[in-house]
Amino acid sequence: MTRSRQTRSPLEAGRHSPALTPIAAACSVLILISGQAYAQAAASTETQTVTVKGIRKGIEDAINVKKNSDQIVEAISAEDIGKLPDASVAESISRLPGVTAQRSAVTGKSQQVSVRGMSPDFNGGLLNGREQASTAGSRGVEFDQYPSELLGGVVIYKTPDASLAGLGLSSTIDLQTVRPLAFGQRNVVVNYRKEHATKAVNEPGFTTGDGDRFALSYIDQFADRTIGVALGLTQAKTRGGARANFNSWGGWAADVDYNGGKVKTPGGFTTDIETTDSERTGVMGVFQYKPNKEFESILDLFYSKGDFSVKKRGLEGPLGGLSAGANDVGGKLINATVSNGIATSGTFENWKGVIRNHNEDYTDTLKSIGWANTLKTGGWTLKSDLSYSQVVKDSVRFETTAGLAGNTYNAADTISFSGFNGTNFTDVKYTSGLNYADPALIKLTDVQGWAGGSAAQAGYYANPKTTDDITALRLSGKRDLSWGPLTAVDVGVNLQKRTKERVTNEGALLVNGTVDANGNYINRLAAVDMPGASVGVGGLTGIPTLNFNPVGTLGSVYRLNPWTDSDIVGKSWGVEEKVNTLMIKGDLDSTVAGLPIRGNVGLQMISTKQTGLGYLVDKNTCNTGNHTCGYTAISGGASYNDFLPSLNLTADLGGDKVLRLGLGRVLARANMEDMKAGLDFGVKNDAPALDGSGGTVALLNGSAGNPQLKPFRANAIDLSFEKYFGKKGYVSVAGFHKELSSYILRVAKPFDYAPFVTPNTVVPPSGTVGWLTQPINGSGGSISGVELAVNVPFSLLTPALNGFGVQVNYSNTSSSLKLASAGFSTQNVSSPTIPLPGLSKEVTNLRLYYENHGWQIAVAGRNRSAYLGSISDYQDQQKYTFIKGETVVDLQANYEFESGPLKGLSILAQANNLTNEEFAQYDVTSGATTERKVFGKSYLFGVNYKF
């Protein structure tokens, strides 16, 4: 007999959250299991019909998805139309077992998601089952581009499903919009929220912020319920909200001459007050046509556009006697207090600080469209799905420098520091001798001479643009069978083409007077007054500074001197992929040893053809003084096949207990930036000898992408035991192991540059063989973990606690994989190896809620241990950095009028980051904090009306 199974989620939500120890989690499981008998007895005597809504409806819908799935999945479901349990999709997803979020280093809000301790790049990102484009050089979907009000739910597949395209190595995350014919009647929901952000720190220069968020959802059915329409619109704006940033230049302690000896002092600092403004508009549309049981057509439209701006106003400069540029002679330490070789306080003479007035703006536009058709005929269910996804991100980075002009001091300055203990770089107090808010002293100029040589750089401008396009066509057919345990077979093909490119234009800003009409330098040290100047604060130093807005000054105050250094040329690239997938899946339903078994077995056969584009730069053609290099376009590529078998089995143990087993081979494709064909090389006079002798010699040395990269591949096994209490709650214990047969790492290896040598190339006596650093495929390593989850209402224990409930989960993940740090763009790393990016050893989520008599109250927290995360640096490049563990606590309260003239109206209050948790980077060797970002708390107040 064939059992019915749910094939798609209704509308999901749920969430879980913070710091709970493994022992506490285990105790919770035991307590709940001990109450099982009472709960079942209570359930058996319940005869009254109860309408479930709000938090519990979202939880029960999500549990229903998990319980009826043939795979091991996690789900969240909207508590109501247009109402996921959090303000962002990433925050809601991060509360699920084995899942956590990385906060944005700019906004402090959840942006990307790690599943089972792996990088966000290892997830497959889908919308309604279709792979989605992304903005970064990686493939990780930025979930803040998907307004939560436009989604009905999310399903995370932890084991592979052969009928899904775009599978990931760690998981496949499918965002889902609603299906209007699944609703019994018209639904219209309007909500509005007002946001208030507190001061990040209670210091001068820090301001509060505010925002507005509006959403409208409309669902209706027409023509005797054969036509369904769903429309959604959301508009969100945030303004102001100053955040604190302090960077200690990598946590560097300088050895400084003092009184005939050496003492340690801070090596430098950068501190900003960062003010962000953002706006996002989202539109969702679904048209569903189902004239009969045999045919259905669904058209999905999703649009999201975000405008984001961050203004950085601050102060930076070298310490430790360091000369940081051609215009700086370095300072001298005086009046120091020394303890155990550390200058706990002191003053540097001849200090030259740099005032930062930077703007970083971008616009991202997401377009996604899909048209799916289903036809039942002749015993077959035939499906077609045509889809297109595009993301365009256009950025502008505008950096300016101001301070004392010239390479000799027209006014002596000092910088004093106090409170230094040798490692607390981000807590040191600074005071200056000069007034950095005096327009008679402070000018727009090349303060330090950071361009090097004779070049000038009074600021920097960059305009990178990333475009990602995915076009796909899927055809499939499914037929019921009676071949022993095989009850149905589903065969399909997915044809997909993806193109991604990044193009940048950047270079130095020159103030008027730096060059003549022919572009020749006439005064590298030119300085001009700051237009529209106002008095601000140099970040967390509290030192008054002169500030202005650089927008609109290109052409009036500055001119752009484009640079084509090898690293800048290498930022422009393109990649094209053609991925054709044959999918075969069979549904299973049988009995083994008296136990009902259901599930599926499948195989994906994937043919991939990829091409990488980039530029070849021979550094011998470079003019370092003018920051120019010659370059030519190059390309390369590869074709290969993958075979991904999968097996999912679910055993019904009786008493609402199930045991699940998942086996399969999974993959994650390389970051697309790593697949570029770019190559640059030149002579390095102190390169390590090729024979491994430990000496140094002059060799050709370079770096490159690798258009022949193959994916990360792993063989995976998953086991999960789940005990359900109807659809009201569950407890589960799961374990997984992934054995990596292939992964990607960056290494330096011997390479013969002979094919790229030109008459202009300087070849050292050693010849054309040298070192090349590029991403390659390695083998070996594993990832294993255990996940515990409890999701229950307390009414299962006693009716006295009706309305109360808890969602709690804990995961512990480890990996044997160690990567060579030398091949990665890393910060705060002095060890030869680094762990797997994204891996937090422990992740805990806790959510306590109460829902009764119209009240819905929930407090939630999520905790993750320290990990190696990926952030975008000041050059728009992704770098790995160690990020400290954190616990983020949120609170939500809602009251809904259940009767009377206000029925359908609810009032909402929400508080995020209640403990003002910092985003902190640290040095993995010393443990010292190298950079702190303080975001403050935010509050939302709003109303929601459903009619």
From TrEMBL:
Say which domain of life the source belongs to: Bacteria
Q: Where is the TonB-dependent receptor plug domain?
A: 66-166
Q: Which Gene3D superfamilies match?
A: TonB-dependent receptor, beta-barrel domain, TonB-dependent receptor, plug domain
Q: Which Pfam families match?
A: Plug
- Subcellular location(s) per record: Cell outer membrane
Predominant subcellular localization, coarse grouping: membrane
Q: Is S-adenosyl-L-methionine one of the keywords UniProt gives this record?
A: no
From the UniProt annotation, give the residues forming the signal peptide: 1-39
Q: Which UniProt keywords apply?
A: Cell outer membrane, Membrane, Receptor, Signal
Which regions form coiled coils? none
InterPro entries linked to this entry: Beta-barrel_TonB_sf, Plug_dom, Plug_dom_sf, TonB_rcpt_bac
Its family?
Answer: Belongs to the TonB-dependent receptor family.
Q: What is this protein called?
A: TonB-dependent receptor
Q: Which species?
A: Ideonella paludis
